[in-house]
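Thread: Newbie trying to understand structure tokens

Hi all, I'm a second-year student working on a class project, and my supervisor (Dr. K.) asked me to get a predicted structure for one chain before our next meeting. I've only ever worked with sequences, so writing a 3D structure as a token string is new to me. If someone could post the tokens and maybe explain what I'm looking at, I'd be very grateful. Here's the chain:
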Amino acid sequence: MIKKFNQVQPEGIAQPKIELNSRWKDSRGEKITVTCVTDSRITYVRDGYSHECIFSEYRFRKEFIYLPEESREWQETVKENVRKKIAALRSSLPLSVGSDGWDKGLK
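---
Reply by user tm_fold:
Sure, no problem. This is what the structure looks like when written as tokens:
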């Protein structure tokens, strides 16, 4: 018995993964940012619009186009902002127990 292998190459573009803080655009060119991803729903915010919108994953993939370059830049910006917030929070906390910091008045 002879085995035949299918030599057909895959066609089309693979669907990008929908991630938090990824950037997409609609058919009119308006850009959005994904704010929440669940199993069945995608929550996003349009640029210049304060309210969130919710779509099913199917409808989201059908109506929006992924922007890989902007997504990378946007995610790096978000990560840097989070790092700054964490550093500011850590600097505002009292020093650790046993140091010459917050417990001076208790001794």
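A couple of things are worth pointing out once you decode it. Residues 23-91 form one domain. The mean pLDDT is 83. Feel free to ask follow-ups in this thread.
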